[in-house]
Fold this sequence. Notes:
Layout: H1 3-17, E1 25-28, H2 32-37, E2 46-50, E3 60-61, E4 64-65, H3 69-75, E5 78-81, H4 88-95, E6 103-105, H5 128-136, E7 140-143, E8 150-152, H6 157-172, H7 178-188, H8 195-206, H9 210-227, E9 228-230, H10 232-243, E10 247-252, H11 258-267, E11 278-280, H12 281-284, H13 292-300, E12 306-310, H14 313-322, E13 326-329, H15 333-339, H16 352-365, E14 379-381, H17 384-409, E15 414-418, H18 422-435, E16 443-447, H19 451-457, H20 462-470, H21 477-485, H22 505-512, H23 516-538, E17 545-549, H24 555-564, E18 570-572, E19 589-591, H25 605-608, H26 610-616, E20 624-627, E21 633-635, H27 640-643, H28 645-665, H29 677-689, E22 690-692, H30 694-697, E23 701-703, E24 711-713
Parallel strand pairs: 1-2, 1-5, 5-6, 7-10, 7-12, 10-11, 12-13, 14-22, 15-16, 15-17, 17-18, 18-19
Antiparallel strand pairs: 3-4, 8-9, 20-21, 23-24
Amino acid sequence: xxxxxxxxxxxxxxxxxxxxxxxxxxxxxxxxxxxxxxxxxxxxxxxxxxxxxxxxxxxxxxxxxxxxxxxxxxxxxxxxxxxxxxxxxxxxxxxxxxxxxxxxxxxxxxxxxxxxxxxxxxxxxxxxxxxxxxxxxxxxxxxxxxxxxxxxxxxxxxxxxxxxxxxxxxxxxxxxxxxxxxxxxxxxxxxxxxxxxxxxxxxxxxxxxxxxxxxxxxxxxxxxxxxxxxxxxxxxxxxxxxxxxxxxxxxxxxxxxxxxxxxxxxxxxxxxxxxxxxxxxxxxxxxxxxxxxxxxxxxxxxxxxxxxxxxxxxxxxxxxxxxxxxxxxxxxxxxxxxxxxxxxxxxxxxxxxxxxxxxxxxxxxxxxxxxxxxxxxxxxxxxxxxxxxxxxxxxxxxxxxxxxxxxxxxxxxxxxxxxxxxxxxxxxxxxxxxxxxxxxxxxxxxxxxxxxxxxxxxxxxxxxxxxxxxxxxxxxxxxxxxxxxxxxxxxxxxxxxxxxxxxxxxxxxxxxxxxxxxxxxxxxxxxxxxxxxxxxxxxxxxxxxxxxxxxxxxxxxxxxxxxxxxxxxxxxxxxxxxxxxxxxxxxxxxxxxxxxxxxxxxxxxxxxxxxxxxxxxxxxxxxxxxxxxxxxxxxxxxxxxxxxxxxxxxxxxxxxxxxxxxxxxxxxxxxxxxxxxxxxxxxxxxxxxxxxxxxxxxxxxxxxxxxxxxxxxxxx
Length: 716
């Protein structure tokens, strides 16, 4: 019986930790395993529970408080990580830097960091051909369902309960922690309880009306379907086995009924097996976990060659083999992420919302369970859309949500997105607002601007002139004069081909003396043209407005404010918010991806790999040099970032797909991204954690016309 599973967990705990019975114990984990364990170990001195989600602190389970780690360090003697074994090391990595007392895993092992290379994992040796050969060699083939034929847009099954709890509260306003209630009821019922029986238990426990309970049950089923993503190669192997005439089964431990399970299958066009070939624990009162489903299958076909395919090493592999059934291990998408080159990001996830953010990318990256074979565990990106989805999607969504929240707090009506960084930013923010239909309408304007243009347009004094002249440049005096002041060098100028050194002010200013009157004439022309141009874009900008830019010192914000004679708050991905930044003294500036303790963004991981975002956040035209007398933008010639702009468009398609998927599941989250999993994932992928195809990388260059004409391809 599957009930024996709970008893075995309880017995194992006693055997492993009986010597520590007198110690003050903190259990890490508040899921099903802890809920079924606590009532059976009342003679142990469990004084606290731990959970990664800050919002759980202060709650109680079985009268035991959920505490913060710093408190547990003070009051407990040991921590026991009581979770699914696949999460042991992830959880330990999450707390290892801050824990001050011994930590054990529920299997009795003392927790310790292990420095092993992701590339050595033997699973990467498996291929789709290996799976097909195994299927070919057997008469009967059984497939696990969850995490094998399909994966979820979340890292753990319990994340679905948290999503459900959020939706229940927003729809029914019950004022209860439904996610915890749902798990508590499941832990107190028979392991074979159906979903209907679980909700009967909820009605009996809470007094909830049966009608509301029925609606929530339907909500849970629809959510399960919504989160499912087909693992295409496995489903193709499933269909191929049927076409070959193999007798194929789906074998699953699940709480849904046969009818409900078939509904899930039909949503993914997998309802192609007769009912007798779908073996469910809820229907048969037997499970894979205790081996009884495999015993049934073997007893029914004692002489057949049977193969079972699944992701859980204990339930799918060990139990199948124990009952003389061959087994083929397919790693789940979440376990693939943990074992991959970017596995460290899993420890950064603080709550179920972070799990969904990671789970979305994980489900897309690892639909194919063999995708890491050729790269030996390094995450590959072969198309620009997936690159945008997994690498940039979370960062862009976090910024949009933070920005929308700041607009509301600051009572702004309009956002000015500075060019060229704002080309995609404005488009994606407008798209985000359409996705979040409950947000108030925010006016947005794309403002063509560049440092060169705004510097010259605001150059009125000798000090301004010296500042513009001495800004860094790499190249010849001929190029400098044209790019900085839109003037052609005199044919007789002996310095025309000499390199400019802007740090030698006196030398450069002497070279510029013959051109000063023409420089001031050009300045007046450009200021006039730009003022006329901006008036057509901005109109009467009296309503409260803010500026949006990528980074860093706020110089463009400062000179734009001088130009329009208005003070406008600036919102950045990252910025120098230190007292040493002179523009910080006069600008109202905020940054999304750095903490208050990091004013210069020196430890901000987004800054460490900011060149990729900076390269992405550009426009399909070169830097804006000036506005001509006819009111047209004059830009620098297209460079590689523009010539390959179609790649960026495809990257942005992936970003928008991610935003749509995330908004469909997640509630609005206005927190900054300083310690967020999005920035951590972005950095992990670009800090050597991914193999990015040359077809994608040829769309990413670093260029800055303000300082010279050199452009450099980006590498990982």
